[in-house]
């Protein structure tokens, strides 16, 4: 009990300790390694109590064992660490369940001898120690079960969490509750889609069909309330939105689906998630929406991710467009895509660019090309059309090399090293193509024009 | 490029650091990342699609890293430690130790060592009131004091903080009178500057950002398995070495030939290499300069250009897209694009930090997947800047705040573009952001929302990171994270174009240099400490490579550069459950996983790696070479102070005049100055020997007591020190000077008033359970007030009639002090507590 009396007589100034330690480092930055350094210097003062010493040593042993993948050893230490739940320091006692859950679940996830039952028992115990973590642990427990293919158990878990009440609900608990419900909705979606698969195998005139479809309908109702609340909160909710929209679409609620997707994509409070725009575009495409609408969605996606695969589709749409500004944008999109390091070997993009450059120059719009080229002429030659790439591309993909050579010829003139290198190569099959290329470069190259 | 879909669910909230009401969904579990939601709605098909909880481990071949090269000829000084800067001892009422800069000690060191600087002006002012020789003279106008007595009193070694320092009345008076004048000028002028300097040093000790990025690089050679290590060496780290190393054999790396050396005029802080389109460039950052070399086919570097950064360079990076393009950032907040052909082009300048106000001038710049877009980072966040766009534009990539659920006090320490590695499956749009708590992977296509977060928990700032290509097809990519304290962590990152990056297994820690202490032979304490200091030197460079496997298991070679200039290497073998995975159905639910899992965790039972003879022999050779290296003399030694020394200086002063004259003459004539010109050779100052002081008395006394002659010694001492006159005054002084209380040995002298009935006076205040040795040993360290109170109590008890004294109280005392007669016990305590 000596510990206890010491705790009681401790002066009340200790709360500001953490603040004061950082006084020395005036920048307000927190140094996790400060404590260790201090302990090597400061020998006087109040010593850590034995209990605190052993528990903190035990914690570091667990962490060390985990980082060395010694699950058995970590489990043994964990066994001893549980005594921290009896710590007389209320701060530590309150923080303990979360640490135990974090480390314990980690150990049980990897431990060779652990199984789902062990994990279940552990999770159920932990939920009720330090009630504040109930929702978080339930959610993770459900995810664990989901990972092991136990959908029903996961669902039961989430239902339990859903009905859990403890005192006043804090704002963060409210949010997690939404997440719990959304995951439940997702589980319902899984069963729904399973049933839908079964349904598609059944005869429409069968009695079973009508009961099944009624069941499905009920489920959809529940799901929509479950997921709907969450996806209004700013965040990344790809799997929920996707499944929710699929269900809405199935029941013909296209307006609802569009509303959900539009909100997900355009709400300023949400992060600019490219997937939101991709889902919206795919939905509109399925819905056979007018071209203008598709273009406007893709234009926003182009502004966020100019390197996305869909930009090729965007280009095709723009190329076919009647409006001149769209056709001009079509060129910009291709140039924009090829700016990125991950897209340099995209043969479709180079093919499109070669074709489109020729088309534009035939239509006599060299200023469009000039405009795009101006900001790139300082670095594209080394980035795309260097001698190194000419050799490399020719070795790896002659088609790509030819397309690039043509573009290089158009943009840099026939003196360009890339173009010259490809031209020099004597290739049986491509000889004709290369000859043609030489001709068109001579005719259309923008270098000639500027002279 | 495809964008990963679906992304993991995450909340997105804006707000400052450490907002507590946001649920942190990451929970910091490594396994949570494995729980990607099933793409296919059919749960039955899902099991196979999910990766099993595989155990991926790089197993070290040896228990610790081994030095690669013999130690350099330059000695290494570990520099300042927390011990030098902080108050030793703490407030007893505080539960947690607290960092308080020890200005008083530093100030007193300064006053001891450079008293002439600190006090000369004052001394000159007070010159007329003091006289160095002769007796003091009285005149009506001015009081002239003779310093001789004062100085005599100061004789003897009185180190700082000595609680037994002997003060005379004269000294006390002088210090009381002169104190305000002396301390105010010195402390007000010097204290502020000193505080600033100490705060700076302390911050540097907490976080030394100079070596951010690392000063060790690996240049792959023309043939597979060979390469060059590029690193700075020498005491000032101003020589850049390029050392060819062969990793072809599965065993230790072979150092080939002598290193190429480039002498620089500043310490090397960062070394970067990059091979773009077959052209290898090598860039080096010093404090105020950046330089770039082109490495030829033979591995010979040819200098291209050097730029000067006036405010100090904080980071340099080489473009992974365009050969010969670099980004340089300076303390002023400017970021420049640098090409040797066109020189510097400033693309960003802002002396303020990005997200919130932070005083650190540290800036960082790196490239992105778009060759014209750079990231600019500071302690608070990371921004993407288009170099072609008008200034002021940009998009935040990472914000220190609620968006990434950052903690209070969290700051960005390292930003790195992970780019494209050969054969890697990760998209080329990922950026690594390290803070002191966590590691974030951010995709530049989805700014502000980290794709992955891992709580690294390193015990030192993570300033080094290296992403390596996957060791085999469909294997996760190792990401090596290095703390300045030498801790290494290896993360297994997997992900492709269609799924977000995640941890494939629990991260692992690699052995650090301090783990290899056991490989060295047993040494005497001093050499052991030297070795330990050397091994504990901060890690300033990290490099790793996966040489072509010469067998089925891939090998990872890790090189570490320490601030002492040593390179340590270790290699690790990939132990993966992949091969054992066939035993059980992959991803099968837990119960079925058990047999396969049990077989796939051999490391729990396998013996931990142990040192082989070759490694220990190598280490002891290295140790021998290290012992040849001269040690750095300590910059500070305990000052000696005696009046003989002081007065002797007066005579030197006179001869000094001649010296200056001769020096001037020699300079005027332009001839070499000989020793003889400087007058008689000053005797080499002997190292500070322990002055006969209280401590010596203690030794002497302890020695005597050991031989059983303690009492006799004490008697002698008493006769020597204390005259009867002094003894009479003692009681008075005791109350006046509580500081000297514990050393005034006279308290319990038989002659003192409480003499006749000593035993009850001892027993009463002292708790009977306290063993005597402990109580007496802790005597001087006990707080003073209780001692005083105890004395008062003792005095009161002494006045009590003797028949009241409980008899048994004497018994424990006489038992406690077998060596002393029963009439002497009262003496014992104060003596031991001297």
From TrEMBL, chain A:
TM ranges are none
Q: What is its main location?
A: nucleus
Compartmental location: Nucleus, Nucleolus
Sorted alphabetically, the Gene Ontology BP terms of this entry are: transcription by RNA polymerase I
Q: Which InterPro entries match?
A: RNA_pol_I_TAF1A/TAFI48_chr (IPR016629), SL1/TIF-IB_Component (IPR052669), TAF1A (IPR039495)
Q: What the protein does?
A: Component of the transcription factor SL1/TIF-IB complex, which is involved in the assembly of the PIC (pre-initiation complex) during RNA polymerase I-dependent transcription. The rate of PIC formation probably is primarily dependent on the rate of association of SL1/TIF-IB with the rDNA promoter. SL1/TIF-IB is involved in stabilization of nucleolar transcription factor 1/UBTF on rDNA. Formation of SL1/TIF-IB excludes the association of TBP with TFIID subunits.
Subunit-structure text: Component of the transcription factor SL1/TIF-IB complex, composed of TBP and at least TAF1A, TAF1B, TAF1C and TAF1D. In the complex interacts directly with TBP, TAF1A and TAF1B. Interaction of the SL1/TIF-IB subunits with TBP excludes interaction of TBP with the transcription factor IID (TFIID) subunits.
- By what name is this protein known? TATA box-binding protein-associated factor RNA polymerase I subunit A
Q: Which organism encodes this protein?
A: Dipodomys ordii
Automatic annotation (TrEMBL), chain B:
The UniProt record lists the TAF1C C-terminal domain at 767-834
Q: Region (Disordered) spans which residues?
A: 580-613, 676-697, 712-834
Q: Which Pfam families match?
A: TAF1C_beta-prop, TAF1C_C, TAF1C_HB
Q: Where is the composition biased (Basic residues)?
A: 726-735
Domain TAF1C helical bundle positions: 529-744
The TAF1C beta-propeller domain covers: 283-419
Q: Where is the composition biased (Basic and acidic residues)?
A: 786-806
Q: Which SUPFAM superfamilies match?
A: WD40 repeat-like
Note the InterPro entries from the entry: TAF1C, TAF1C_beta-prop, TAF1C_C, TAF1C_HB, WD40/YVTN_repeat-like_dom_sf, WD40_repeat_dom_sf
Q: Where is the composition biased (Pro residues)?
A: 683-693, 753-771
Ranges of biased composition (kind: Polar residues): 736-746, 807-825
Instruction: List, alphabetically, the GO terms of the cellular component aspect.
Output: fibrillar center
GO molecular function terms listed in the Swiss-Prot or TrEMBL record: RNA polymerase I core promoter sequence-specific DNA binding
Report what the protein is called: TATA box-binding protein-associated factor RNA polymerase I subunit C
Gene name of the encoded protein: Taf1c
């Amino acid at each position: 009990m000596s510990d206890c009396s010491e705790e009681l007589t401790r002066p009340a100034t200790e709360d500001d300790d953490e603040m004061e330690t950082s006084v020395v480092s005036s920048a307000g930055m927190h140094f996790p390694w400060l404590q260790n350094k201090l302990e090597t210097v400061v020998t006087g003062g109040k010593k850590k109590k034995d209990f605190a010493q052993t528990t903190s040593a035990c914690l570091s042993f667990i962490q060390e064992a985990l980082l060395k993948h010694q699950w058995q050893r970590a489990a043994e230490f964990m066994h001893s660490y549980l005594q921290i739940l009896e710590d007389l320091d209320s701060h530590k006692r309150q923080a303990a369940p979360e640490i135990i859950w974090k480390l314990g679940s980690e150990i049980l996830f990897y431990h060779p001898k652990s199984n789902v039952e062990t994990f279940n028992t552990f999770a159920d115990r932990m939920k009720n120690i330090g009630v504040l973590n109930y929702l978080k642990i339930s959610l993770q427990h459900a995810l664990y079960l989901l990972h092991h293919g136990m959908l029903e158990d996961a669902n039961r878990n989430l239902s339990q969490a859903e009905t859990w009440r403890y005192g006043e609900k804090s704002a963060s608990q409210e949010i997690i509750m939404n997440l719990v419900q959304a995951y439940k909705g997702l589980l319902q979606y899984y069963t729904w889609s399973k049933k839908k698969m079964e349904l598609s195998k059944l005869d429409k005139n069968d009695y079973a069909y009508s009961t099944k479809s009624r069941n499905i309908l009920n489920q959809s109702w529940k799901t929509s309330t479950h997921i709907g609340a969450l996806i209004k909160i700013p965040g990344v909710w790809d799997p929920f939105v996707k499944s929710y929209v699929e269900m809405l679409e199935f029941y013909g609620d296209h307006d609802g689906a569009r509303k959900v997707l539009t909100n997900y994509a355009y709400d300023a409070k949400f992060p600019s998630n490219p997937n939101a725009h991709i889902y919206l575009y795919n939905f509109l495409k399925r819905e056979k929406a007018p071209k203008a609408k598709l273009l406007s969605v893709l234009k926003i996606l182009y502004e966020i991710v100019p390197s996305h695969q869909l930009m090729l589709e965007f280009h095709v749409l723009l190329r076919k467009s009647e409006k001149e500004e769209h056709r001009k944008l079509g060129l910009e999109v291709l140039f924009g895509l090829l700016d990125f390091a991950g897209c340099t070997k995209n043969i479709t993009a180079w093919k499109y660019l070669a074709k489109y450059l020729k088309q534009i120059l035939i239509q006599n719009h060299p200023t469009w090309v000039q405009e795009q080229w101006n900001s790139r002429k300082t670095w594209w030659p080394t980035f795309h059309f260097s001698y190194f790439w000419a050799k490399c591309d020719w070795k790896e993909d002659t088609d790509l090399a030819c397309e690039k050579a043509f573009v290089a010829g158009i943009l840099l003139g026939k003196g360009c090293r890339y173009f010259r290198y490809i031209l020099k190569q004597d290739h049986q099959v491509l000889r004709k193509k290369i000859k043609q290329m030489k001709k068109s470069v001579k005719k259309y190259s923008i270098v000639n024009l500027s002279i | 490029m495809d964008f990963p879909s679906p992304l993991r669910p995450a909340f997105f909230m804006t707000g400052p650091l450490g907002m507590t009401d946001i649920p942190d969904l990451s929970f910091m579990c490594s396994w949570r990342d494995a729980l990607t939601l099933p793409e296919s709605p059919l749960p039955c098909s899902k099991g196979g699609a999910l990766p099993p909880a595989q155990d991926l481990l790089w197993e070290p071949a040896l228990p610790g890293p081994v030095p690669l090269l013999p130690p350099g000829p330059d000695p290494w000084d570990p520099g300042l430690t927390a011990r030098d800067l902080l108050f030793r001892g703490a407030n007893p009422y505080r539960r947690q130790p607290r960092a308080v800069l020890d200005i008083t000690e530093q100030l007193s060191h300064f006053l001891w060592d450079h008293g002439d600087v600190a006090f000369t002006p004052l001394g000159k002012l007070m010159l007329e009131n003091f006289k160095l020789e002769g007796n003091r003279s009285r005149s009506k106008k001015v009081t002239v004091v003779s310093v001789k007595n004062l100085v005599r009193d100061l004789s003897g070694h009185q180190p700082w903080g000595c609680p037994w320092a002997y003060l005379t009345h004269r000294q006390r008076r002088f210090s009381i009178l002169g104190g305000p004048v002396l301390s105010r000028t010195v402390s007000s002028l010097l204290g502020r500057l000193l505080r600033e300097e100490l705060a700076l040093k302390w911050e540097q000790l907490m976080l030394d950002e100079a070596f951010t990025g690392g000063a060790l690089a690996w240049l792959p050679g023309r043939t597979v398995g060979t390469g060059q290590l590029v690193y700075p060496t020498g005491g000032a780290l101003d020589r850049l070495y390029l050392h060819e190393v062969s990793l072809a054999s599965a065993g230790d790396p072979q150092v080939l030939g002598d290193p190429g050396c480039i002498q620089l005029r500043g310490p090397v802080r960062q070394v970067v290499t990059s091979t773009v389109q077959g052209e290898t460039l090598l860039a080096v950052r010093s404090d105020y300069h950046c330089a770039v070399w082109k490495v030829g086919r033979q591995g010979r570097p040819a200098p291209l250009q050097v730029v000067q950064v006036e405010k100090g360079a904080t980071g340099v990076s080489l473009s992974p897209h365009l050969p010969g393009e670099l980004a340089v950032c300076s303390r002023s907040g400017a970021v420049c694009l640098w090409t040797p052909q066109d020189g510097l082009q400033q693309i960003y300048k802002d002396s303020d930090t990005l997200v919130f106000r932070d005083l650190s001038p540290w800036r960082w710049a790196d490239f992105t997947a778009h060759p014209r877009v750079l990231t600019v980072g500071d302690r608070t966040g990371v921004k993407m800047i288009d170099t072609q766009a008008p200034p002021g534009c940009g998009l935040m990539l990472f914000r220190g705040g609620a968006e990434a659920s950052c903690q209070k006090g969290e700051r960005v320490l390292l930003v790195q573009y992970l780019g494209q590695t050969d054969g890697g499956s990760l998209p080329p749009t990922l950026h690594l952001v390290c803070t002191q708590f966590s590691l974030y992977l951010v995709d530049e296509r989805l700014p502000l929302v980290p794709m992955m977060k891992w709580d690294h928990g390193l015990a030192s700032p993570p300033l080094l990171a290296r992403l390596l290509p996957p060791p085999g097809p469909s294997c996760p990519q190792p990401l090596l994270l290095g703390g300045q304290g030498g801790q290494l962590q290896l993360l297994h990152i997997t992900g492709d174009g269609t799924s977000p990056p995640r941890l494939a297994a629990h991260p692992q820690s690699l052995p650090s240099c301090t783990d290899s202490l056991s490989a060295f032979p047993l040494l005497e304490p001093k050499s052991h400490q030297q070795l330990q200091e050397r091994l504990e030197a901060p890690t300033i460079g990290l490099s790793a490579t996966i040489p072509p496997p010469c067998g089925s298991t891939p090998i990872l070679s890790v090189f570490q550069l320490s601030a002492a200039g040593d390179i340590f290497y270790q290699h690790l073998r990939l132990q993966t459950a992949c091969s054992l995975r066939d035993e059980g159905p992959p991803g099968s639910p837990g119960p079925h996983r058990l047999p396969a899992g049990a077989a796939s965790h051999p490391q729990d039972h396998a013996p931990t790696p142990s040192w082989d003879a070759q490694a220990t022999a190598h280490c002891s050779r290295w140790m021998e070479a290290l012992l040849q290296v001269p040690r750095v003399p300590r910059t500070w030694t305990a000052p000696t102070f005696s009046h003989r020394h002081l007065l002797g200086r007066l005579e030197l002063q006179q001869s000094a005049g001649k010296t200056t004259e001769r020096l001037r003459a020699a300079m005027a004539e332009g001839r070499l100055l000989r020793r003889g010109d400087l007058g008689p050779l000053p005797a080499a100052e002997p190292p500070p020997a322990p002055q006969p002081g209280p401590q010596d008395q203690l030794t002497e006394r302890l020695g005597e007591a050991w031989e059983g002659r303690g009492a006799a010694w004490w008697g002698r001492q008493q006769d020597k020190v204390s005259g009867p006159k002094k003894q009479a005054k003692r009681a008075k002084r005791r109350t006046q000077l509580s500081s000297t209380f514990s050393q005034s040995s006279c308290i319990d002298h038989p002659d003192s008033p409480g003499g006749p009935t000593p035993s009850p006076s001892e027993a009463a205040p002292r708790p009977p359970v306290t063993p005597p040795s402990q109580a007496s040993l802790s005597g001087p360290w006990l707080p003073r007030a209780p001692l005083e109170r105890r004395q008062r109590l003792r005095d009161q008890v002494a006045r009590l009639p003797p028949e009241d004294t409980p008899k048994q109280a004497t018994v424990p005392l006489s038992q406690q002090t077998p060596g002393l007669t029963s009439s002497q016990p009262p003496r014992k305590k104060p003596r031991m507590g001297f």
